[in-house]
Structure formats: C-alpha cells, structure tokens
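User: Some background: our group keeps a shared notebook of sequences we're curious about, and every so often someone picks one and asks for a predicted structure to add to the entry. Today it's my turn. The entry only has the sequence so far, pasted here. Could you supply the structure so I can complete it?
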Amino acid sequence: MNTTETATRSVVVERTFPHPPEKVWRALTQGALIEEWLLKNDFEPVLGHRFKLRNEPMPQWDGVIDCEVLAIEPHRRLAYSWNALGLESTVTFTLTPEQGGTLLRMEQAGFPQGRDNDRYVQGANYGWQRFLGNLEHVLAKLS
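Assistant: Of course. Here's the predicted structure to add to the notebook entry:
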C-alpha cells in the first residue's frame, strides 16, 4: 500500500477580548455581524450548511469563498471549510473563557508547504489580523 501525505501549514492568530464567550459567539455566528467584521455571507450556524463569503472581485479571483460548516459547539468551537483561489483550508475558532473575557484562537489550516505558497500564508495572516481587529470593534458596539 502506497500513501502520500502532503505537509501543510497553518496560520494561527490569538486575541483576548474583554467580552464573555456568549457575546463573541454571537459575532462569529450571526450573518449580519459576520458581515460587519469579516465579509458578506449567507452563513447559518447549522452543521453541514454550505455558504459563501463574498469579497470584492479582483484580477484572477471572483471574490467568492465557498464554505461549509464542519463543527459547531456553542460558545466553544466553530469550524468551516474555506475554499478560495483553488486552495482548500479549514478555519477553526476556539473560544476559551478567561478572567474578564475570552481568548479567541483562530486557526486556518491546510496551506500546502512550499515557497510558492508563502504568499497565501502571509496573505491569510495579514487578513486575519485585520478581520479580528474589525471583530473587536463589532464586539465593542454589541450590548
């Protein structure tokens, strides 16, 4: 039996928010709030739900990210596939209660190894830093 495993890389961004996990969860799972910090979407927090995230089109990309909800553990963990630019990855949000807030860990896993793919890893890291900064602003406005 001959099997081949492709080594992959991940982008991990962690932020502590001064808000309870329930509030962070709302921002991660309500379509109107997701649009405020991430992208336009037709997300529903239902296991197996297929949805699209929509960004501005650019040369060689239509701006559409095809996704499917892979895991939902309310107030604790959310995972979905992320398929864009011919690359398939998985985005997982893990919420951990902390004194006075919530540690949010975002991991986007599945980037193929190789120098040719460094730009995707760098782009994802930049993008998630920006998105989670936007999330902070959305959380601050929520009651």
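Suggested note for the entry: The first helix runs from residue 21 to 29. The beta strands are 8-17, 40-41, 50-54, 64-73, 77-84, 87-98, 101-112.
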